[in-house]
Fold this sequence. Notes:
The complex is a heterodimer.
Chain A: E1 4-5, E2 9-13, E3 18-24, E4 31-37, E5 43-50, E6 55-58, E7 61-66, E8 71-76, E9 85-92, E10 98-100, E11 104-109
Parallel strand pairs in A: 2-11
Antiparallel strand pairs in A: 1-3, 3-8, 4-5, 4-9, 6-7, 7-8, 9-10, 9-11
Chain B: E1 4-6, E2 10-13, E3 19-25, E4 31-38, E5 42-49, E6 56-57, E7 65-70, E8 73-78, E9 87-94, E10 103-104, E11 108-112
Parallel strand pairs in B: 2-11
Antiparallel strand pairs in B: 1-3, 3-8, 4-5, 4-9, 5-6, 7-8, 9-10, 9-11
Amino acid sequence: GEDVEQSLFLSVREGDSSVINCTYTDSSSTYLYWYKQEPGAGLQLLTYIFSNMDMKQDQRLTVLLNKKDKHLSLRIADTQTGDSAIYFCAEYSSASKIIFGSGTRLSIRP
Amino acid sequence: DVKVTQSSRYLVKRTGEKVFLECVQDMDHENMFWYRQDPGLGLRLIYFSYDVKMKEKGDIPEGYSVSREKKERFSLILESASTNQTSMYLCASSFRGVSNEQFFGPGTRLTVL
């Protein structure tokens, strides 16, 4: 069945780039998403990429999509303490449903 | 701005109690969803609804039911709460089609004693 996998933890130094990786199984997914969850809050959409794109950039965020390997990554440039959160990779499934990964907790070291 | 609100941020109930979690969205979205979030497991879909009075089972519907009598409101019901239903419950809504972006409420942390 459909599955989205990502590592559970990532620690980076403040000012460095963070790269969060994700693999998915459904090659027919039309949309792939990155959501951010700050402590005590719900999820908020950071960005999404349509499946016919390889890359999408939005300020400090860069999303790379490798359809052949079914690999999605999120790069955050110049990581700040405010970027500490859980980041969820997700793929569009069918009938308006989205499949979420387990989330990667990003922590920032001074 | 899209707003999804949930009736409680924190809830403590006893085993066997009937529990109602309410979710309201103000953007006329057709779709509404209930998830539970547990550490290391991500979000798991409990139930979803495409329209008023319509409901579909998600991946883990056992022990839960839902009600959608009005378009803006989607209720999750635990008929007889059990300790393994202690979790964070997240409600979301979306328009049908386009990017299918889901908008989330702040979550309800339910503890069943």
